[in-house]
Write a structure and sequence with these properties.
Blueprint lengths: L1 H21 L2 E5 L2 E4 H10 L11 H20 L6 H15 L8 H17 L4 E10 L6 H19 L4 H8 L3 H4 L15 H9 L9 E2 L3 E11 L4 H14 L2 H17 L3 H15 L1 H30 L1 H10 L10 E9 L3 H10 L7 H9 L6 E9 L4 H6 L16 E9 L10 H23 L2 E3 L1 H4 L7
Antiparallel strand pairs: 1-2, 1-9, 3-5, 4-5, 6-7, 6-8
Helix pairs in contact: 2-13, 3-13, 4-13, 5-10, 11-12, 12-13, 13-18
């Protein structure tokens, strides 16, 4: 018996060694092993042909380590225990796992069921494709409106009988905007899908025939029957029906039904089913396992960086101003720029009025001040305030840079244009002139410092001989 236990132990050890040799450890980060399969999944996913900034293996190793270190920091901060994180992660996980639990053939049954319902509704009748010209008559409208609309529809009908084009008049006169743009054409209809008055008239028409004007519960119509056909076969309509049902959430509905059925069979909650099935399916499929892990870790990383790096950096105007002064040369430019406001006004006199108004007002309050003084009751001034370079705005080119070649298109209702601001020849004077760029650069600096601290806090070990086998093994 003792010999048998020893032999069994040796066999188990051999299996573990074999499994490890098939998927060896490429690195160890904060005491946790990273298998080659996980690294390959992430490396290959982030270095496909469509990726603009592709990385070589060594570049990606550094990026991957930084990524894992940030995730570990988030775990140490216990962000994975927050209810908000759990709910968002489980929502994503359910979207991935739920559809995998749907019984094979369930989608096909749904599509077939919908088609059979169409056949039943038609009950042997044809499908009809109408176009109409429509004049609206609300049910509570007075006699005058109804009389006026009746006169209009009769006039349109007379024009049609005299040879006017139906589609042209529909575009010009119909008060059904969705069909008017298509020359009045609606969609294919079967029985029971339209208001009774419309359906009764349409059913009496032959292909190509036009009705006289008639009144329905919503208004006056003139109907042209454009075509008639029988319902296509299931094979022909199947792709179209499937797309339609998918847009209406068929897959999510089937997934929920599958989970609820399993929960009832097992006597557990739907969440317990999804937990168990996630574990089972991920054990069978590495790609699914790493996809779920990728979202889990990515969500953690985002929340941690947003809270501890990005948001604090963006709100620290003192630090950003200091960063700008230290790195001012990197924001220099070769051609002049203009920081200010281009404003479009209804009256010529308002051009000087806006300039005078803003003389002693801080730039940050320009928009608010103009809205308060000029746009209180109605919009008389439209504004665009930012940093401009040559070629970005024809009015700035003309009024500031003296470039007359560019045409200055007139804004309808706002024919007069003025500018107010600062000409910057060599570069920005204050950090707010290039605030977006400074904020991005400062956030990056904070992120780099954060990674440096993580590298000191956590141990990182890589195995170069195993990394050399990435995407290069049997």
């Amino acid at each position: 018996m003792k010999k048998l236990l020893i032999v069994a132990g040796l066999l188990m050890a051999a299996q573990q060694i074999s499994a490890q040799s098939n998927d060896p450890v490429v690195m160890r980060i904060a005491g946790k092993d990273v298998l080659r399969s996980e690294f390959e999944y992430n490396y290959n996913k982030n270095n496909t042909d469509g990726v603009v900034d592709r990385k070589d293996l060594q570049e990606y190793v550094d990026l991957f380590i930084n990524y894992k270190l940030k995730v570990q920091a988030a775990l140490d901060a216990k962000l994975d225990t927050l209810t908000s994180f759990k709910n968002e992660f489980k929502s994503y996980r359910d979207q991935q796992i739920g559809p995998l639990l749907v019984v094979p053939g369930a989608e096909e049954q749904e599509v077939r069921k919908y088609y059979d319902g169409m056949l039943q509704q038609l009950d042997g009748h044809d499908l009809r494709l109408p176009a109409h010209i429509f004049l609206r008559v609300p049910q509570k409208s007075d006699a005058t409106l109804q009389s006026n609309q009746k006169t209009r529809i009769d006039s349109i009908y007379t024009a049609l009988k005299d040879g006017a084009d139906f589609a042209t008049l529909a575009k010009q006169c119909s008060e059904d905007p969705q069909s008017a743009v298509r020359g009045g054409e609606l969609q294919w209809f079967g029985p029971g899908q339209l208001v009774p008055e419309f359906e009764e008239v349409m059913s009496r028409l032959q292909k190509g025939e036009m009705s006289e004007p008639f009144l329905s519960t919503v208004g006056y119509h003139i109907v042209l029957l454009k075509d008639v056909k029988q319902l296509e076969s299931y094979e022909e309509l199947r792709p179209q029906i499937q797309r339609f049902l998918e847009q209406r959430g068929m897959r999510d509905r089937l997934a929920k039904m599958a989970v609820d059925t399993l929960a009832q069979q097992r006597g557990v909650t739907a969440e317990a089913v999804l937990d168990a099935e996630t574990e089972r399916l991920c054990a069978q499929d590495d790609e699914l396992k790493y996809l779920v892990q990728e979202y889990h870790d990515g969500l953690l990383l985002y929340e941690y960086c947003k809270t501890n790096i990005w948001d604090p950096a963006q709100k620290d105007s003192v630090a950003m101003e200091k960063y700008f002064k230290k790195n001012k040369k990197k924001y220099a430019w070769d051609t002049p720029h203009y920081y200010g406001m281009v404003y479009y006004v209804r009256e010529q006199s308002a051009i000087k009025g806006v300039q005078q108004l803003l003389k002693k007002v801080p730039e940050a309050k320009w928009n608010t001040t103009v809205r308060r003084e000029y746009n209180k009751d109605s919009v008389t001034v439209r504004m665009e305030q930012r940093l401009f370079k040559q070629g970005e705005n024809a009015y700035v080119d003309s009024l500031v840079f003296g470039i007359k070649e560019n045409k200055t298109p007139e804004r309808k209702g706002f024919p007069h244009v003025g500018v107010v601001g600062r000409l910057l020849k060599k570069g920005p004077k204050v950090w707010t002139d290039v605030s977006n760029q400074v904020a991005t650069d400062y956030q990056m600096e904070c992120d780099n410092k954060f990674v440096e601290d993580l590298r000191k806090r956590y141990e990182v070990v890589t195995y170069p001989e195993v990394l050399e086998t990435v995407n290069n093994h049997n």
